[in-house]
Write a structure and sequence with these properties.
The complex is a heterodimer. In chain A, about 35% of the residues lie in helices and about 25% in strands. Chain A is an alpha/beta fold. In chain A, the strands form four sheets. An eight-stranded mixed β-sheet of chain A has the order 16-17-18-13-19-20-22-21, with helices on both faces. In chain B, helix 4 crosses helix 6. Chain B is flat and about 85 Å long. In chain B, about 40% of the residues are buried. Classes of the chains: A alpha/beta, B mainly alpha.
């Protein structure tokens, strides 16, 4: 290992930006690290740490407005920073390949996948078209893509997001580059998709023995793929070392802080116990037998149904976490509750009185009591209004505060979200991401609501900043007794502070109940899959997890929204043919209002869980790689999709 | 040892930063728009013409209609600094008087076009549905007619007077303002902050006033400059064809037409008003370019 040849040497790399006044602002301040052949080096840090900027330097590229201010980047001994422009064209794609964060944005929707995957290799004259296509098909197989021989003939919109991400890896690897630059390749993916992509990446990197720079902010992901980790903060290396060294024995305080912000694996006992001080006669908000969707309503059925027969209760002062993968309808649930999307059927009840579905029919007091917090603070705050006006408007609109009184209230609310009072005169553009998110919540708080609907409010934030926002939310709940509906795709975030969890899958509630109950067996098979998919920050987690049976069944297939039967049937490791695919599953009532929507009995689910644990704990000893539990029958009737 | 200490303090610094606010910008960035020297020069040119519009008649050596010159198409002599035109009138005085007509009419027409275009455009964007459909189709119909032809027909039918000129130009150019205002409005209406206002229960007028207009103002303002230039050229073209400002009143467009014959005698009488049109329109364009480049207009950045 020690004797491996150096592939890339970064020595004292400095990159600067020049602002309008001609002043140089250093972005990267002298960074050194090496990459050996066949080694994966992770650059880890929060946004603004310069990790992407550094990784792009290996392609001799800087984003517009930046320039190389010093240092060397030696690729196979040749300095890429002083290279002639024509030479950089030769190395880009051929020697160093770049994988952007979003595969969906990288692929051209009008050209077949195969053509795009092979394009760079053919253009650089590494292969002719025929060899390149053959190599691409080999890669599809290596990346375990379904229908590998023919997937190249499809168009990008005909494959799933996770598959597209893997295809992008094929695109990068096609010309056998010396080095791959992977820029947050799994960040935008759901946990179950992330695990499938990670697994494929790891396998192909090992098989091809290629070197890679892996850029990410997620330590748990890094622990699975990297050999060497470089921790960055504000353009400087804080600490670097082997993955084992950094993960298990980090020295620097910043690294420790980063590790602390990694959310722990969801387990029972993480939820917060709520006192009864805020309890009232009626629940703050209730959703009963609600069906909603888009595209108009015909006979009480939406044309494109998103949610079906959803029942959720939000008690006073409680935090209800709604969790599910993208497209499961969790945002739609919040939009229906807020009145932004009228439901097709069912009732929305606020403190015992039924609410009108449409926003325009609701009374002002009703609107005031239910506040929606948007996901992206960047777009949710009017860029032309100062913070004081943004927060002041609901104060004026609902409560009639004006002039000095309003100003005093704004200061008070800014204080509640831990921002200085002088921020009132700033524009949203002049705030950082976390601060904007605080203002976003402050606006809803200003209405003095009963229920706040938070739609993925921490998803776009760095882990440390996100953790602070969660801390703030918990404090606000304790102080004001506001109920929260907290929507997220991240189970560990939800588990860390929700009192109750609602698990949504393909528009149906598959499991709900108090956090501790949901996170202890028996699990709904989908909840089990979700829990298993959350990356743990230890080496070898990925391999261990992949041994679990539900992963093998669950991650291979995509979500299908079905009109009849259980929506999870096609991915369920213990689906019953003829029952699960035909009949809507019953709700199993367990203690403390814990509900599981499944055809299997509680005993059966318990038994399944015991089986999983057994496999997990002693896989090697047990059965030499042969899963003992029944495998879903091979010939299934096609699932009826709508 | 000292090295180690340095490391430690640096570590503490980083942690201290994290413990306060996340990456707090020290001071709000500057909010003013800085113009390049080209922009500044252009502002000076436009300001010059606006001043001429206001005080022109009192500084002009002669009245625009006075036939004081010795002969027609003379070069500069005595206090006829730019020579005389085809009737022996002082060209300088006519250019100064003409500024009032050309710029005044154009400005009035553009403002009127904006008032109509923005009102209808934002209304269509906010209301959507049948209102949008109705206004947009009528707008498309007007937009499909060639501007000069439309102008010629209206003026031929109603006669040429300044109010009719202003009205015609305003209606013609309101169509493109409508298009821009509607597109901007639609973009802004789907933003989260508008949805937040709707969810709060805000009325349509408040949403237009507080959420939509402030965000549409900058792009509309940059477009205003361009539109003004088009109107100047439109009025000048009409005058050149003899349907604009009627003689003996002066106007840059008609001055070019009147004195076209003088070019064969080597007279500059047709060049000066053309030069005036060019300086005014180019200066406005340069200001627009400069502002949109500095204010981060992505399109402008691509063009620069």
């Amino acid at each position: 290992m020690e004797q491996r040849e150096k592939l890339l040497e970064v020595k004292g790399l400095r990159i600067s930006a020049t602002n309008d006044d001609g002043v140089e602002i250093p972005i990267v301040k002298g960074v050194d690290f090496d990459i050996h052949k066949g080694e994966v080096v992770a650059l880890i840090g929060e946004s603004g740490s310069g990790k992407t900027t550094i990784s792009l330097a290996s392609l001799a590229y800087t984003k517009p407005g930046l320039h190389f201010a010093g240092g060397e980047v030696l690729l196979n001994g040749e300095d890429v920073l002083t290279m002639a422009p024509l030479r950089t064209r030769e190395i880009r794609g051929a020697n160093v390949a770049y994988l952007a964060q979003s595969a969906a944005a990288t692929f051209n929707p009008a050209i077949t996948i195969g053509e795009q995957v092979t394009e760079s290799a053919v253009l650089h004259g590494i292969f002719d078209q025929e060899d390149a296509t053959r190599r691409a098909v080999e890669l599809y197989h290596a990346l375990e893509l379904p229908d590998a021989d023919r997937i190249g003939f499809r168009y990008p919109h005909q494959v799933s997001g996770g598959q597209l991400q893997r295809l992008m890896a094929a695109m990068a690897l096609c010309g056998r580059p010396d080095l791959m630059v992977l820029d947050e390749p799994t960040t935008a993916l759901d946990v179950t998709t992330q695990i499938e992509v990670l697994k494929a990446f790891k396998k192909v990197i090992q098989e091809e023995n290629s070197a890679a720079i892996y850029v990410t902010h997620d330590l748990a992901v890094v622990a699975q793929v990297a050999d060497h980790i470089v921790v960055l903060y504000s353009g400087e290396v804080m600490e670097q070392g082997s993955a084992d060294q950094i993960i298990n024995n980090s020295q620097h305080a910043y690294t420790k802080r980063l590790m602390a912000a990694v959310r722990p694996t969801p387990t029972a006992g993480m939820g917060v116990e709520v006192g009864s001080e805020h309890d009232r006669e009626h629940a703050a908000m209730e959703v009963k037998d609600m069906t909603a969707g888009y595209g108009g309503i015909v006979d009480g059925e939406p044309k494109v149904p998103v949610l079906r027969d959803v029942n959720v209760e939000v008690k006073n002062g409680h935090v209800v976490g709604v969790i599910g993968e993208s497209g499961c309808g969790k945002s739609t649930l919040a939009r229906v509750m807020a009145g932004l999307l009228p439901q097709a059927r069912g009732e929305i009840i606020l403190e015992g009185t039924e609410l009108e579905g449409a926003l325009l029919d609701r009374k002002r007091e009703e609107l005031q009591k239910v506040q929606f917090v948007f996901q992206m603070a960047d777009t949710a705050l009017n860029p032309k209004q100062v913070i004081g006006d943004i927060i002041g408007r609901p104060l004026e609109f609902y409560h009639g505060f004006k002039g000095k009184e309003r100003h005093a209230k704004v200061t008070e609310i800014l204080e509640m979200v831990e921002l200085p009072a002088e921020f009132a005169s700033r524009y949203p553009m002049e705030l950082s991401g976390g601060q904007k998110q605080r203002v976003n919540m402050a606006r809803s708080l200003a209405a003095n609501p009963e229920v706040m609907l938070c739609d993925e409010v921490t998803s776009a934030l760095d882990s440390i900043v996100g953790a602070n926002v969660i801390k703030l939310l918990t404090a606000l709940r304790d102080k004001t007794g506001v109920s929260f509906v907290f929507i997220s795709h991240d189970l560990s975030t939800v588990a860390s502070f929700a009192d109750e969890i609602v698990v949504l899958y393909a528009g149906r509630v598959v499991e709900q109940g108090p956090t501790d109950e949901v996170l202890t067996p028996p699990f709904h098979p989908y909840t089990r899959l979700l829990i298993s998919s959350v990356p743990e920050m230890r080496l070898g987690w990925l391999e261990d997890t992949m041994k679990k049976r539900e992963m093998a069944v669950g991650i291979a297939k995509g979500v299908e929204i079905t009109a009849v039967g259980c929506p999870f049937y096609n991915r369920c490791p213990c689906g019953i043919e003829g029952t699960c695919d035909r009949q809507t599953p019953p709700v199993l009532e367990l203690e403390d209002g814990h509900q599981i929507t499944c055809h299997l009995s509680v005993e059966r689910l318990q038994a399944e869980e015991a089986e999983t644990q057994k496999i997990l704990k002693g896989f090697e000893k047990l059965g030499q790689g042969k899963p003992t539990a029944p495998v879903a029958p091979t010939a299934r009737p096609p699932v009826q999709t709508i | 040892m000292t090295d180690n200490n340095d490391m430690k303090t640096k570590e503490e610094e980083v942690i201290a930063k994290l413990d306060t606010y996340d990456e707090l910008p020290d001071a709000p960035p500057k909010r003013r728009i800085k113009l390049s020297w080209v922009g500044k020069a252009s502002v000076a040119v436009v300001a010059f013409w606006l001043v001429i519009c206001i005080i022109g008649p009192s500084i002009a050596p002669y009245h625009e209609m006075d036939m004081e010159g010795d002969d027609s198409f003379l070069d500069a002599y005595d206090n006829f600094y730019l020579g005389t035109d085809y009737l022996g009138r002082d060209t300088l005085s006519r250019v100064i008087f003409g500024a009032r007509n050309t710029i005044g009419i154009s400005l009035a027409a553009t403002l009127l076009a904006y008032a109509m275009g923005i009102t209808l455009g934002i209304l269509a964007a906010v209301k959507g549905g049948w209102i949008d459909m109705g206004i947009s189709r009528v707008n498309d119909a007007i937009l499909s007619l060639p501007t000069i032809m439309l102008g010629l027909i209206v003026i031929a039918a109603l006669g040429s007077s300044i109010p009719i000129l202003v009205g015609t130009a305003a209606v013609i150019y309101a169509t493109s303002v409508f298009r821009i205002a509607r597109a901007l409005g639609q973009d802004i209406m789907v933003q989260d902050f508008v949805e937040a206002a709707k969810a709060r229960g805000e009325g349509v007028w408040w949403i237009i006033k507080a959420e939509v207009l402030p965000n549409a103002a900058m792009p509309l303002a940059t477009d205003f400059g361009l539109r003004l230039v088009f109107v100047v050229l439109f009025i000048s073209s009409l005058s050149f064809l003899g349907l604009g400002v009627q003689p003996p009143a002066s106007d840059w467009g008609s001055m070019v037409r009147e004195n076209l014959g003088g070019l064969t005698y080597g007279s500059y009488a047709a060049i000066w008003p053309a030069f005036a049109i060019a300086t005014f329109t180019i200066a406005i364009n340069l200001i627009v370019d400069d502002i949109s480049a500095k204010s981060g207009g992505s399109l402008a950045k691509k063009m620069v």
